[in-house]
């Protein structure tokens, strides 16, 4: 069976700053210029005040697992070798949520509330993706 690559996100003008930050090891989210609401993924309107004005801002990259789903079905052949794998929703300390993956933890051991921190996986010269790992004493086996 031929080796099939995973899809790589496109660096669009709307996401240029997000990917520039990721290449430098910084997690970036949009911040509304009117009310200060943080949001991810990027979108045209603030869901809090409906402003169209926003700027990219760095965040800590620390948070907790808010929710997760273990994938058992192959939806893209590039992920077939990783089945089962987990898709996690991380609630960042700053309040917004982000979909990603949790590195180094078997899917059946993931629990909501686990403390995590961002890491970056370099896919190409242009694209690095934020992933998460357990942080601090959680990596040693102690979780909340």
Description:
This protein is mainly β and 144 residues long. The chain has a single domain (13-140), classed as Beta Barrel (OB fold (Dihydrolipoamide Acetyltransferase, E2P)). It is built from one helix and eight strands; from the N terminus they run αββββββββ. The strands form two sheets. The protein has a five-stranded antiparallel β-sheet. It has a three-stranded antiparallel β-sheet with strand order 2-1-3. It starts with 15 loop residues before the first helix and ends in a 10-residue tail after the last strand.
The CATH architecture: Beta Barrel
CATH topology: OB fold (Dihydrolipoamide Acetyltransferase, E2P)
Supply the CATH class: Mainly Beta
Helix content: under 10%
- Mean pLDDT, to the nearest integer, reads 92
What's the N-to-C terminus distance?
Answer: 42 Å
Order of helices and strands: HEEEEEEEE
What's the count of strands? 8
